[in-house]
């Protein structure tokens, strides 16, 4: 479905953008059009009654200044400034539980729409996306370079102070315990399981082809450089291994 450039709200109550928007109108339009152009957008936004059922059932709305009803209304009325504003903080409160999607009488998916807004925030290198993702740089490094999210050697007492009495399990001799596991691919603490070199290279191709690496470069250039070095090294390792075989 093609979307008209002028919005419903502009036609009926005028331009919703204030006199001094945080960024130019063109930029806000570009961001909204990216969200709207996603193939999932029309599937996840079918109209909005403003009934508030989504907010009433949303766990995040109980704890934060956040309302899925408000987010859906901003998108439905194409309120460019409001959308941009919500992307600075509010969209990151969602827990992606999709209770809202199960309850909406219009079969909207507020959680799914929020995911589209998050992806656009990353694509446009918004500060909010950088701030939210910064604490996860170790996880992103591990995930992109190995396909594993966490490895035993990442689990330290300092890293998990909220584990309470379970902290004793972290202090256990992980090296010894992992070597005792019958499956050899789990005898390591540097990855959750050992990843075959060919699998790693295939994974890198996926990151490249799907734009994951471009997005990473937008939000964290240093991490991007580190990951490129790892990818180059592993590709060289695979080439050496193939030479040896032949
Ligand atoms: S998204 Fe659905 S549940 Fe939420 S206010 Fe709109 S119509 Fe109601
Ligand atoms: S997916 Fe997000 S917006 Fe929807 S109910 Fe869960 S936390 Fe709330």
Task: Write up what this structure looks like.
The protein has 246 residues and is mainly alpha-helical. It has 16 helices and no strands. The longest helix has 25 residues, at 221-245. The model is unreliable at 1-15 (pLDDT under 50). It binds iron/sulfur cluster (SF4) (2 copies).
Features of this protein?
disordered N terminus, mainly alpha, binds iron/sulfur cluster, 0% strand, globular
Please outline the helices and strands:
Blueprint: H1 8-13, H2 25-37, H3 41-44, H4 53-57, H5 59-63, H6 68-76, H7 80-86, H8 99-103, H9 110-123, H10 127-133, H11 137-146, H12 167-170, H13 174-179, H14 197-209, H15 212-219, H16 221-245
Helix pairs in contact: 2-7, 2-9, 6-9, 11-16, 14-16, 15-16
Largest β sheet strand count, sense and barrel closure? none
Give the proportion of residues in helices.
55-70%
Heteromolecules bound: iron/sulfur cluster
Radius of gyration: 22 Å
**Count the helices. How many?**
16
> Averaging pLDDT over every residue, what do you get?
89
Question: Could you say which overall geometry the principal axes of the C-alpha atoms support?
Answer: globular
Q: Which segments are poorly predicted (pLDDT under 50) over 5 or more consecutive residues? A: 1-15
Strand content: under 5%
- Tell me how many strands there are: 0
Helix-strand category:
mainly alpha
Distance between the termini: 53 Å
| Secondary-structure element order, N to C | HHHHHHHHHHHHHHHH
